[in-house]
Every structure is written in structure tokens, then in C-alpha cells.
């Protein structure tokens, strides 16, 4: 091993999988070896079995669908509003001066602390879940997008001006395309955070969803089901992240060159 | 006929102690179809002067007029090639060259025809669908030149466009630009600190003093066109080079503090 020397694609995958195997081995050793009480931590085999039972007999697939729908719905609303506002803030400094202080403040308001308030306002229905995710992701998105747009290389903007671009052209033909890969990367990252908010919202007040299943299982001391639920969240997160990354690479081939 | 008229233009950048004077009141008049190089040590305000002509900086005092109309901001009538690589990385070579044409509202097929012509002139046929990152520095600057020329500006402003290239590539780029100028006779204002470059391409060399910059002398280059690269070894070239070397040397010494400021 030498610092910063790249690893081949084959050994990269092998190393990544190796740690997953090691993790399961340690877990299996701890549970089957009797080092941890079954009440507190189920073993991997039981976990997989009850996971199958959840999916086959208890309609867990519906819960997964509900959670995915909530995340995507809330996130989509946040993104549709945050992208234009972020671009405007990044491009026009007075707009930034108007919104930035409030957005910076709102960003530190913990989305989970809004849940009791949102339950009062919107009940425990879907609107409340969407609102939690919206609050959790909107302000972060706006600020990060504004920074990306504001960091556009000045010399590219100047070159566009000398080619006859007007202010509108600068925004749509320079600022937006140049920051598009970074905006897509921001969306990918914040979508990851949105997953945390939805589960918190479902833990507190919900009649369906992965978080709801986890609270139900807690009452039954079914650690196997809780762990299965957590792993499902992790897997969905991993898959969407990979899909998002692949999509970004496909959409912005120029941003990958020479990396 | 004079197309660019720079009158008593000075630039002071704000700061402590009344700011930094980058350029003292400067007059310069550029004739149609002329190729003028502005030669000076680093920090003499020559790039500032060019940026003010482009409309990217505003003069503190004085006025700049193009075809009798005051320059108030950047525009397509003053094309510019920068020292840094300013191709849009998300556009291909062809799309980069079309950038200004699209801004003018030209139909796409006309944009492509015109862009291909200029891509041919800078010798980049076959690279139309390459992205800037897939090109060498010299190729990127040739694309930038094609992009500026395709827009058909009244005057082409060049801010040390070959400064980041290696010596051999730079010489080839100078020959390419010289050839294009001889064919098109586009009016060019070219800023450089390289004496050979200044003489080889220009009809007039304007020498600037160290900061605060002012025009120190303005010399015609009496070498006939077309110019072959071998003119660099001719007596007329070396005489002018010797003269300019003396002029610049004193300024560089002043700039780096090796010579007391002349009263």
C-alpha cells in the first residue's frame, strides 16, 4: 500500500464485499456463540427468516412502498421548489441577501422537532410525512445549490459576455449548465438525508411504513424484525444512491472527463 | 480609419491609501485592420486596459469608443481570447464555437456551417464533437480563437492567449494567428509580455511602463506580410528586438525594485 495510489476495479469490489462478509461473521459469532442474549440481538439466520415472513405473510412490501413513496414525494416537492430558488440566489446577489439569512437559520431547525407541531396541524396522515421531509431537505438544498451556482468560474461568465450573451443567457447558458453536475450531486446527498427524516416521522406517528413496522416490532421485542427493517432501509438507500450516481454520470459525461 | 479610440483612460483599484493605480491616463487609437501588440512587464496594467476595452472593467476616468460609440459593457462586437482556458466544459468544440452565433439567434444549420469553417481555419477538423477536457492546451486556445472569430467581432482582443502554452506550441500558434490575420485582416489588440511574439505578429508594438502603467513608446514594425517564421532571424527583427529588450528591461528592473524610481 502506498498513499493515494488507486486500487484496481476488481480488488475494489472484492474489498468492499469482504467487509460485509466480515461484519456478518462477527454478528453471527456474537449471537450463535451465546455472547449476546437473544432478547437483545437476533442472529442473522432468524433475521432473514422473519424478514421472509414479514414480506410473504405480513404485507411488509406495502410498508416499504409507502415509505419509498413518502420519501420520493416529499423530496420531489422540495427539489422542484429549491432548485429554482437556489439558482436565483446563486445568480442574483440581492435575492441571496434577501433569503440567505433566513434559510441559513431555518436549516438548523431540526426537522424531527417539527413532528409534534406538524401532527397538530396535519394529523398523522401523508401530508405530515411529506412536510417533515420537505422541511428537512428544502433549506439544505437551497443553500447548497446557491453556493454551487455562485461558485461558477468567473472567466467562463466573462467569456460568455464577450460572445454577446445577455444576463438571461448568462444564467441559462452558463451558470445553470456549469453547476448542473454539482446540483445533481447535492440532490443525491440530500435524498440520503431525507431517508432519515421519513423513518423518524414514521416512528412517531404512522399507521404504515418501515418506521411503523419497527415501532410495532419493538413492542413485541422482535429484534429480528427491527434489524431486518433497518437493513431494508440501508439497501434501498444504497440502490437509489447507485442509481443516482449512474444517472449523473450518464447525464454529465463532460464532468467525468479527466477526473 | 480609427475604429477604437481610447482617451485619457485611467484605472485605480480601490484600497487603502487611496487605492492602487493600475493604469495612468492612457491614449491609444487603433486603426481598422491593424494588429497592435501591447508589450509590458507583469502588473503594468496592460490586461486591465484590454479588459476595459472588452467592457469587463470600467475605467476610473477617461473614455473608450468603438466606432464612435462609447463602450459601456461587454458585447459581441469585441471578441476576446483569454489567457486561461475558457471553453465551456459542458459543450463540445462545435457547440463552443456556436455559442455566440446561437446568442445572435442564427438558425442551427447556419451556425454549424459557419462554425465548421472556423474550426477548419484553426486546423481542428475531426475534433468537432470532442469536449474541451479531451483537448491539449494549444487545441483549446485554437478553439477559443475560432469561437471568437466566428462571432465576427469588430475587434479581436487577446489577453496573453498563448501564455500558458509551452514555447514550441506558442510559436506554432503565433504562425497560425498570423496566417489567419493575413487572410482576414481582422483588427487585433494583443497583450503580451513576450517580445518575439509582440514583434512577429504586430504592425505596431505599444510598450508599457511598470506599474503604474502608461504607454512608454509606440513603434511600427516595418516587416512585410506575409511573414514567415524565419523573419525572426532577420536583422530588421533583431534590431527591433534589441530596442524593445532595452525598453522592457528597465521597466522590469523598476517593477521588481532593482532600480530606483526615476523622478
Succession of helices and strands of chain B: EEEHEEEHHHEHEHEEH
Tell me the number of strands of chain B.
10
User: Which percent range describes the beta-strand content of chain A?
Assistant: under 5%
Elements of chain A, N to C (H/E): HHHHHHHHHHH
Mean pLDDT of chain A: 91
* CATH architecture descriptor of the largest domain in chain A: Orthogonal Bundle
Question: Measured on Cα atoms, how large is the radius of gyration of chain B?
Answer: 19 Å
**What is the name of the CATH superfamily of the largest domain in chain A?**
MetI-like
Q: Tell the overall outline of chain B.
A: globular
Task: Estimate percent helicity of chain A.
Answer: over 70%
Describe the fold and architecture.
- The complex is a heterodimer of chains A (259) and B (263).
- Chain A is mostly helical.
- Chain A has two domains: 7-36; 40-256, MetI-like (MetI-like fold, Orthogonal Bundle), CATH 1.10.3720.10.
- In chain A, 80% of the residues lie in helices and 0% in strands.
- Chain A has eleven helices and no strands.
- Chain B is α/β, with parallel strands linked by helices and 263 residues long.
- Chain B has a single domain (2-242), classed as P-loop containing nucleotide triphosphate hydrolases (Rossmann fold).
- Chain B contains seven helices and ten strands.
- In chain B, strands 6-7-8-3-9-10 form a six-stranded mixed β-sheet, sandwiched between helices.
- In chain B, strand 4 and strand 5 form a beta hairpin.
- The radius of gyration of chain B is 19 Å and the shape is globular.
- The mean pLDDT of chain B is 91.
Amino acid at each position: 500500500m502506498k498513499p493515494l495510489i488507486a486500487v484496481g476495479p476488481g480488488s475494489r469490489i472484492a474489498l468492499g464485499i469482504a467487509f460485509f462478509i466480515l461484519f456478518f461473521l462477527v454478528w453471527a459469532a456474537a449471537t450463535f456463540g451465546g455472547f449476546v442474549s437473544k432478547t437483545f440481538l437476533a442472529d442473522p439466520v432468524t433475521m432473514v427468516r422473519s424478514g421472509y415472513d414479514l414480506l410473504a405473510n405480513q404485507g411488509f412490501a406495502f410498508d416499504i412502498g409507502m415509505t419509498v413513496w413518502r420519501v420520493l414525494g416529499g423530496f420531489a416537492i422540495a427539489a422542484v421548489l429549491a432548485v429554482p430558488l437556489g439558482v436565483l440566489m446563486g445568480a442574483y446577489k440581492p435575492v441571496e441577501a434577501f433569503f440567505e439569512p433566513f434559510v441559513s437559520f431555518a436549516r438548523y431547525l431540526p426537522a424531527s422537532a417539527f413532528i409534534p407541531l406538524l401532527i397538530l396541524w396535519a394529523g398523522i396522515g401523508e401530508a405530515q410525512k411529506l412536510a417533515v421531509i420537505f422541511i428537512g431537505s428544502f433549506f439544505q438544498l437551497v443553500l447548497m445549490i446557491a453556493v454551487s451556482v455562485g461558485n461558477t468560474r468567473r472567466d467562463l461568465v466573462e467569456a460568455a459576455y464577450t460572445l454577446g450573451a445577455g444576463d438571461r443567457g448568462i444564467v441559462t447558458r452558463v451558470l445553470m449548465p456549469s453547476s448542473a453536475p454539482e446540483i445533481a450531486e447535492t440532490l443525491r446527498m440530500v435524498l440520503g438525508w431525507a431517508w432519515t427524516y421519513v423513518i423518524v416521522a414514521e416512528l412517531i406517528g404512522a399507521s404504515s411504513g418501515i418506521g411503523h413496522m419497527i415501532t410495532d416490532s419493538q413492542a413485541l421485542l422482535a429484534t429480528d424484525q427491527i434489524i431486518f427493517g433497518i437493513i431494508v432501509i440501508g439497501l434501498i438507500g444504497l440502490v437509489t444512491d447507485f442509481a443516482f450516481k449512474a444517472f449523473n454520470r450518464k447525464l454529465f459525461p463532460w464532468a467525468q472527463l479527466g477526473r | 480609419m480609427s475604429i477604437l479610440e481610447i482617451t485619457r483612460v485611467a484605472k485605480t483599484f480601490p484600497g487603502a491609501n487611496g487605492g492602487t493605480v493600475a493604469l495612468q491616463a492612457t491614449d491609444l487609437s487603433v486603426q481598422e485592420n491593424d494588429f497592435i501588440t501591447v508589450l509590458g512587464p507583469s502588473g503594468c496594467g496592460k490586461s486591465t486596459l484590454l479588459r476595459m476595452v472588452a467592457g469587463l472593467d470600467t475605467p476610473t476616468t477617461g473614455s473608450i469608443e468603438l466606432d464612435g460609440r462609447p463602450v459601456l459593457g461587454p458585447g459581441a462586437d469585441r471578441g476576446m481570447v483569454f489567457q486561461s482556458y475558457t471553453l465551456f466544459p459542458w459543450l463540445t468544440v462545435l457547440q463552443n464555437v456556436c455559442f455566440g452565433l446561437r446568442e445572435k439567434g442564427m438558425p442551427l444549420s447556419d451556425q454549424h456551417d459557419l462554425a465548421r469553417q472556423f474550426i477548419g481555419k484553426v486546423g481542428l477538423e475531426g475534433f468537432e464533437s470532442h469536449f474541451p477536457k479531451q483537448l491539449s492546451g494549444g487545441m483549446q486556445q485554437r478553439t477559443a480563437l475560432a469561437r471568437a472569430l466566428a462571432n465576427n467581432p469588430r475587434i479581436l482582443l487577446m489577453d496573453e492567449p498563448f501564455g500558458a502554452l509551452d514555447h514550441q506550441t506558442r510559436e506554432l500558434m503565433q504562425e497560425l494567428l498570423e496566417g489567419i490575420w493575413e487572410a482576414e485582416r481582422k483588427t487585433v489588440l494583443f497583450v503580451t509580455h513576450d517580445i518575439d511574439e509582440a514583434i512577429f505578429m504586430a504592425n505596431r508594438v505599444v510598450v508599457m511602463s511598470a506599474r503604474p502603467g502608461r504607454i512608454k513608446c509606440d513603434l511600427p514594425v516595418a516587416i512585410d506580410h506575409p511573414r514567415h517564421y524565419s523573419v525572426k532571424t532577420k536583422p530588421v527583427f533583431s534590431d527591433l528586438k534589441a530596442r524593445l529588450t532595452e525598453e522592457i528591461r528597465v521597466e522590469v528592473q523598476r517593477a521588481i525594485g532593482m532600480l530606483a524610481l526615476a523622478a
